[in-house]
């Protein structure tokens, strides 16, 4: 039997993890915030506008174009207005938490595959930059 077979112990546990996440009250609350945002055309348009304008300004900077004071102020004003929108702000907070959850779970699984064992809190801290010189075994030693 393959480790990826539907009835393997690993795939059974993966589905159990997914069920635990989906049934978690905090996860459901985060999902509700995302759904509320997606249903709010005004908040979505505001978010999209700020995101697109931020990308444009970033590309201009990356290309070596100096940004004008007025376009910086315009962007900051739009961003401030976005942050005043409760639906958009809740969405961004929820999005951040969901991304952190995904990253953390992925990190645990990835490290398990690399180490051949369940990672310890120290393993995770070291890989997350909590160790010397950023951890992860890629510094060749400690910084002075």
Structure characteristics:
144 residues, 2 domains, disordered C terminus
Structure description:
The protein has 6 helices and no strands. The longest helix has 30 residues, at 86-115. The chain folds into 2 domains: 1-39 and 87-124, no CATH class; 41-84. Residues 131-144 have low confidence and may be disordered. It has helices at residues 9-23, 25-39, 41-62, 69-84, 86-115, 121-130.
Which secondary structure elements does this structure contain, and how are they paired or packed?
Elements: H1 9-23, H2 25-39, H3 41-62, H4 69-84, H5 86-115, H6 121-130
Helix pairs in contact: 2-5, 3-4
Organism: Haloferula chungangensis
InterPro entries: Com_YlbF, YheA/YmcA-like_dom_sf
Protein name: YlbF family regulator
Order of helices and strands: HHHHHH
Low-confidence stretches: 131-144
Mean pLDDT: 90
How much is the radius of gyration in Å? 21 Å
In DSSP terms (H or I, runs of 4 or more residues), the helix count works out at 6
Helix content: over 70%
Distance between the termini: 51 Å
Q: How many domain regions?
A: 2
**Biggest sheet statistics:** none
Strand content: under 5%
Shape: elongated
The SS-based structural class is mainly alpha
The overall strand count is 0
């Amino acid at each position: 039997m393959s480790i990826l077979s539907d009835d393997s112990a690993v795939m059974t546990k993966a589905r159990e993890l997914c069920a635990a996440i989906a049934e978690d009250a905090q996860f459901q609350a985060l999902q509700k915030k995302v759904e509320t945002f997606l249903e709010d055309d005004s908040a979505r348009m505001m978010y999209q506008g700020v995101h697109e304008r931020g990308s444009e300004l970033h590309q201009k900077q990356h290309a070596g174009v100096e940004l004008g004071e007025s376009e910086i102020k315009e962007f900051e004003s739009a961003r401030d207005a976005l942050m005043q929108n409760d639906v958009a702000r809740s969405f961004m907070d929820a999005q951040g938490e969901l991304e952190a959850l995904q990253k953390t779970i992925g990190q645990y699984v990835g490290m398990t595959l690399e180490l051949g064992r369940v990672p310890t809190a120290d393993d995770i801290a070291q890989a997350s930059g909590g160790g010397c010189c950023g951890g992860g075994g890629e510094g060749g030693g400690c910084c002075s």
